[in-house]
Design brief:
The structure is a single chain. By secondary structure, the protein is mostly helical. The chain has one domain. Helices cover 66% and strands 0% of the residues. The chain is elongated, with a radius of gyration of 21 Å.
């Protein structure tokens, strides 16, 4: 736990960047699923098709560089870097006393 405490700021920054990577990469991962045989049925849902079809057309170079299953598996590997970041950030702040203000009400009364 001491290692996490010494590197708290770096872990927090890594988690912040991985949150953004996950935000963008998650959409690419979802769009690449819709191109696979298992994911084609998802496009039958009107709300899914409303955003996924225009987004897939716009981001076609990022989705068509290989066969659909390989693209889907490749974007899925992003989660291997995002998951440790989301797990380590809370651990590095565990036990940190962030409550500097008194818990009593105005005038010191509870």
């Amino acid at each position: 736990m001491d290692v996490l405490n010494r590197h708290r700021v770096a872990i927090g920054r890594f988690a912040w960047w991985m949150a953004w990577v996950g935000l963008v990469g998650g959409q690419l991962h979802a769009l690449s699923r819709f191109a696979t045989d298992d994911g084609k049925d998802d496009l039958a849902l009107p709300l899914t098709a409303a955003w996924a079809v225009p987004a897939a057309d716009l981001l076609d170079p990022l989705l068509s560089w290989s066969d659909p299953v390989e693209v889907y598996l490749s974007y899925g590997k992003l989660w291997f870097s995002c998951s440790p970041a989301s797990r380590s950030a809370p651990l590095s702040y565990e036990g940190l006393d962030t409550h500097t203000a008194s818990r009593s009400g105005p005038g010191g009364s509870p």
